[in-house]
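BUG: 3D viewer hangs when loading the predicted structure for this chain

Environment: internal workstation, default settings.
Expected: structure renders.
Actual: progress bar stalls at 90%.

Input used:
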Amino acid sequence: MDTPSNATVRCVGGIAHDPQGRLLLIRRGNDPDWGMWSIPGGRVERDETDIEAVVRELREETGLDVTPSTLVGSLTYGPYEIFDYTCAVDGGVLRAGDDASDAQWADAAKITELLTAGQLRERLFVTLRDWGVLPHH
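Structure tokens produced before the viewer hung:
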């Protein structure tokens, strides 16, 4: 679907941690940010709520079934208005799918490694840090 150049596109993201406190990340398989690591998520479809979109996007991109809860924060990235929600993982098997080329649970050391290697946007790192959702170890 084409959108006018001045239109914003509503998107969602899911912030999930495993029992060890690691953060769920996917590597983008398409633009924007092809090849970069990010939290999973995507566009909210017509007649879909944010919560429904988070559940669908995480299932498509990671193979995991989640229950979204609290809105952690929102940001604007180009034409995208992104609303990120905390998620509890209820089941599924972690695997990359849809427009994700890889998926993993990342601890603090891995996130620092990705940031240093230029594979994680500094803006995303700072946002997640400011929201208090980065792994602590």
